[in-house]
Fold this protein.
Amino acid sequence: MANNMFNNNNNNSAVFVEVVDLTGEGGGIGTPHPSYAGAGAASDGAGAGAGAGAGTALISTDAAKRDFFLTTNDLAQLQDKGKCVQFGGGIGCGAPTKKYYQRDLEKAAERAHGKEGYKRKREQREKRLANQKRKRDDESARANAALAEQNLNVPAGAGASNANAAHAGPDVKALRAGLLKQVKKGMGFRDSGAPAPIKVELPGISTASFAALIGRPQDPTLKTLARGHGGVYKHDVRGNAALCAMFGCVETKLGKHFAGEGVSQRLCDSVVLKYKHKDETLVVHAGGEITLEMF
């Protein structure tokens, strides 16, 4: 999640543009996110004077529901008690963002589930996620071992040469350029004026092409990549450098200007790829953020 701030010349007030994690892959699963604890001071310019220390970090609505097992009604009670911080909003920014203090969410979770019940829910989720991670790690380790054994039988230099050719071949270059074009085409706005989530679906993508796209050309059958629920391979791309490498472009190509709205959007620095091996379909989930840059 990232925040950009610029001044509104009409009223000299600060307008915050918040980029929401549209991919649904935010952190903090299992236990409250590490950024919640410690010197959490009120972030995003919304909690000045709240004091420092544990429990003072501001947490989004989605994270509050996910990490503290709360419902919309539970959060509504906090809003009624004035324990909800709202900021942002305005033209091009959508509705105001609601956030809650960690300490209030912990108390609400204990009221909703009981102190022991809340603790038990967290422990059960931690155990479940740990088991899932262990299973993925085991599968990946076995696949890496198998791939390493295969490479022992490949003449020196041949494997690297073939991998580089697949990584930079014309088909993969065309896939990178076409994918970027479709993602930028998917940029738009909600009715509220906030950036709309981006979803692009590309059929007919071979396993080898997907492997090269995500930087694994030496593994055209994806043996080293663990499959998730439903046999879907998932790959997270984070950071502008990684996005530029995947799309085969420079950073200035990650944005789009909307002349009608008079604003620009740039691609968020977190994109999720989901590849369905069964029908060779690639689905891309991304988001945009409003920026003052001109593209």
